[in-house]
């Protein structure tokens, strides 16, 4: 595998493990929200820098079901513009898309100047769920693992900053999270029949993950692995790491001052009765 050359060399890459993760003391919500608020200020600075410079940033989030990808993406993007930070979470391919070149359905979503595109699962579906669940042949997987580093090299050479995260969750924590979805009416939509099938194939996914990381961790597009058993810590760690990887700068802004409102000039409030929302709370 290629040697990492980014300025995040000081951040150690965590090796995936199927063993139970040793957790630190639970992060209190107040502390988490305080740290996240500080990071959000920096994420907004990153957004303004991307808009100003025309940077093109692509971030991939991969991991098993229940690893915390969606929550991490939500924490990263909740204070920025969806016109700059675009989240791509593609459904299963259509019959037409199945006949296209494999990467075609993904390339149309890659960032243009001034955009940050975040993939909640990406073209690495071929090395993960498609392989484990038998949606592609082993020959197609091996071809993918050979071609994808070249595909990503083309992306990087075109000026895209490509950052890839694998969220690593333990067996026990994955079980706890999936069971919580069953019992929570707010989360039941997150549990699909495919999730249940994949849950039983832990070690098939482990083998697929190992092959994927080994073949596609390159100098120009390295993988970064984050332990995600503690969701709050994982989110803070990943956002901090992401900000270190991108050489953004604070873009100067003019001091904002609200202008004076215009005068009424004869305007009268309407006399018709609007349909009001009931105030139940």
Helical stretch tally: 10
CATH topology: Rossmann fold
Within CATH, the superfamily carries the name: P-loop containing nucleotide triphosphate hydrolases
Oligomeric state of the chains in view: single chain
- CA radius of gyration is 22 Å
Total domain modules: 1
What order do the helices and strands follow?
A: HEHEHHEHHEHHHEH
Biggest beta-sheet profile: 5 strands, parallel
In terms of per-residue confidence, which ranges show pLDDT below 50 for 5 or more consecutive residues? Answer: 1-14
Strand content: 5-15%
Q: Which secondary-structure class do the elements indicate? A: alpha/beta
Helix share, percent: 40-55%
Instruction: Report the principal-axis shape.
Output: globular
CATH architecture descriptor text: 3-Layer(aba) Sandwich
CATH class: Alpha Beta
Please provide the count of β strands.
Answer: 5
The overall pLDDT average reads 90
What is the strand arrangement across the widest sheet? Answer: 2-3-1-4-5
Question: Cα distance, first to last residue?
Answer: 58 Å
Structure description:
- It is a single chain.
- A 5-stranded parallel β-sheet has the order 2-3-1-4-5, sandwiched between helices.
- Helix 1 (29-53) runs parallel beside helix 10 (231-245) and helix 6 (138-157) packs across helix 9.
- The protein is built from 10 helices and 5 strands.
- The chain is globular.
- By secondary structure, the protein is α/β, with parallel strands linked by helices.
- The longest helix is centred in the first third of the chain and has 25 residues, at 29-53.
């Amino acid at each position: 595998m290629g040697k990492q050359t980014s300025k995040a060399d000081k951040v150690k890459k965590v090796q995936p493990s199927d063993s139970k993760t040793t957790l630190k003391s639970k992060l209190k919500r107040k502390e988490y929200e305080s740290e996240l608020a500080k990071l959000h200020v920096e994420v907004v600075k990153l957004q303004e820098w991307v808009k100003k410079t025309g940077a093109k940033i692509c971030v991939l989030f991969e991991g098993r079901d229940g690893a915390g990808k969606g929550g991490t993406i939500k924490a990263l993007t909740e204070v920025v513009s969806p016109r700059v930070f675009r989240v791509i979470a593609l459904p299963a391919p259509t019959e037409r898309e199945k006949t296209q070149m494999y990467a075609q359905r993904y390339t149309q979503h890659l960032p243009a100047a001034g955009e940050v595109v975040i993939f909640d699962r990406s073209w690495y579906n071929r090395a993960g769920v498609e392989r484990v669940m038998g949606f592609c042949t082993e020959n197609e997987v091996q071809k993918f693992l050979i071609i994808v580093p070249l595909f990503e090299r083309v992306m990087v050479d075109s000026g895209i900053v490509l950052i890839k995260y694998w969220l690593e969750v333990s067996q026990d924590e994955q079980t706890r999270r999936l069971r919580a979805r069953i019992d929570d009416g707010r989360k039941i939509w997150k549990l699909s029949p495919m999730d249940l099938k994949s849950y039983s194939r832990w070690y098939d996914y482990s083998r697929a993950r190992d092959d994927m990381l080994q073949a596609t961790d390159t100098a120009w597009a390295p993988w970064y692995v984050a332990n995600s058993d503690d969701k709050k810590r994982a989110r803070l760690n990943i956002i901090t790491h992401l900000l270190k990887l991108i050489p953004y700068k604070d873009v100067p802004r003019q001091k904002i001052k609200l202008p004076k409102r215009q005068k009424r000039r004869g305007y009268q409030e309407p006399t018709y009765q609007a349909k009001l929302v009931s105030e139940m709370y």
